[in-house]
Amino acid sequence: MSPNELNEQLKQTVGRLSEPDSMYGLFYEMGDGNPLPSAPALAEIIDLCRAILFPGFYGKSTLSSKTLPYHIGVNLDRLCHLLTQQVVAGLCSQNSEQMQTCQLTEKAQTIVADFITRLPELRRILATDVEAAYNGDPAAESYSEIISCYPVIKALTCYRIAHELLLLGVPLIPRIITEMAHSETGIDIHPGAKIGHHFTIDHGTGVVIGATCIIGNNVKLYQGVTLGAKSFTLDDDGNPIKGIPRHPILEDDVIVYSNATVLGRITLAKGTVIGGNVWVTESTKPGEQIVQAKKRKSQLVRPEDWGGL
């Protein structure tokens, strides 16, 4: 192919890729130079939050009780600056009211100020998650090991941050944060889920918790558990109806063992135990145990009984 032919082919391809019809819903046009939220900036925000919530385990490791207020203050100042920028970008992505940039910035500053005041409560509830993980795993030797190593704490930190931002009306960013945790840990928790205190996930890989799940206190999941939707309710045009509760409710003290699948808007009542590899689509009674039916032992057949190979 000659250079002229290659240039012509490139020109035609650019034209086809630039056709408006081919980009419907796929093109984000920045208004007033405002980009979408930045993944690297959000990663730094998560690092800052972890350093504030778990000082010494994340961020500066050479802290003392004397220098702690200084380091928390520096991290909070940086967090406010970065998070305000990213919330503005998130608000711009869904600016249906056509607010001016200055209005969006003011709104973002209010949101970030509210979020900062919630950090002490976030630390308190994350402390209960650390306690639950430690008490629920005989192999765990210390809280330090739980905070430093266990994927559930990393995932729950991101989830609880994202959930608070979602409650404060921040679009897009909460989902990006939980998907970052999903990539890091293999644990997929939608920021819209509601999760109580002393929650833990043993091992964690492959766990899915849907957007409308409600999880009580002292609940424990194992790896591979899915708390999902059974089906989508469709409107008259055949499109899924969004915003309706479609995921399970887990009351206090529920345990769901590995690779169990719990689907639909059902309730696992207080104290329910779901065995491994079980498919559950109906509500349970308090304290009920759902396990696989026992199978007969396989009869031993000797090679001479069927002629061998």
Notable characteristics:
309 residues; globular; alpha/beta; 14 strands
Total number of strands: 14
User: What is Rg?
Assistant: 25 Å
Give the termini distance in whole angstroms.
60 Å
Low-pLDDT regions: none
Integer average pLDDT: 89
Subunit arrangement of the protein: single chain
- Strand order, largest beta sheet: 1-4-7-10-13
Which sheet architecture does the biggest sheet show?
5 strands, parallel
Total number of helices: 8
How are helices and strands ordered from N to C?
HHHHHHHHEEEEEEEEEEEEEE
Helix content: 40-55%
The secondary-structure class comes to: alpha/beta
Beta-strand percent range:
5-15%
Described by the principal axes of the CA atoms, the overall outline is globular
SSE diagram, text form:
Blueprint: H1 3-17, H2 39-53, H3 68-93, H4 101-117, H5 119-135, H6 143-149, H7 151-167, H8 173-185, E1 188-189, E2 194-195, E3 200-202, E4 208-209, E5 214-215, E6 220-222, E7 226-228, E8 249-250, E9 255-256, E10 261-263, E11 267-268, E12 273-274, E13 279-280, E14 289-290
Parallel strand pairs: 1-4, 2-5, 3-6, 4-7, 5-8, 6-9, 7-10, 8-11, 9-12, 10-13, 12-14
